Amino acid sequence: MRGRLVVCGCLVLVVLTALVGIRYGATDIPLSRVCGILLSESGIGTVEATPQERAIVWHIRTPRVLTGGLVGAMLALSGVLLQGLFRNPMASPSIIGVSTGGALGATSALAAGLGAVSLWAVPVAAFGGALLSAFVIYALATERGRSPISTLILCGLALNAITGALTSLILSFSVREWEVGRQILFWLMGGLTDRTWEHVGMVAPFALLCFAGAGIFWRELNLMLTGEESALALGVDTSRTKLWILVIAAGSAGAAVAVSGVIGFVGLIVPHIFRLILGPDHRRLIPSCIIGGALFLMAVDLAARMALAREEIRLGIVTSILGGPFFLYLIVRHRKRAEGF
Questions:
Q1: 177 or 172, higher pLDDT
Q2: Does residue 21 belong to any structural domain of this protein?
Q3: Which residues are CB-neighbours of 162 under 8 A, at least 6 positions away?
């Protein structure tokens, strides 16, 4: 019952936050007119609005808000899957290097000029980079089915350093070409500026596939919380399950990185909060984190746009400001538990 109430409450907040995000900006448009334009563009009714207002609402703000919601949902989904797979609350796509691996793949494609060749080149490259990073971390940090916090964090730091250095190397070779260098800096700082319906169409298929795939494995994730041996005894093909969960988690993070750049800590904060509220049952955690991730990133994006009067704060900066102290809190908390306090 609690899970349904949380999901319904988050859905209501998602709709309200989306409407507020579409309304406010450099040009303030009344909420009633925003709703009328959205319904009109969807083929329901008509509304009196200027062409400028229609363009702002439908072609600028709506795709940005939808992209933010999808990115937040996928990052939160990746986080909850990785935490369940590693049985470790510290796991998230940004901390263990999956996001930066996806960014390296995306920036490599941009530097090679593949983004101008095919719309799918950048997301496919980001998916490959995120997937490779996830497999490397899993191989290095996991021993006998366990992923110690210290090993996971150290491996993540090392991989983040390597992928960050390679990304910087690519950037250093691309600074002479202003447009390529600007696009690479976009991925590194993260943001939703100039997102269009084309970007929504790019990320939506990945999101739907990952959401559906994650819903299939909630039972296996619950059983694996007690250990791989116990799950195997209960009929779970642990090798196959771990492979698919890793692919879904990496695909979610990679697709998100492909349209937004590196936005850290969403996959750490959102699953942790909902785990405290709902417990460890992934049947409730997965849909709650998907909706909660969308709500979180849409709200943060709105705050980033409205914080300063003249300049927009890059979204990745804001999430890092929020997530850094939260990550330190988790480290101190688990250290005290390990020491018996």
A1: 172
A2: no
A3: none
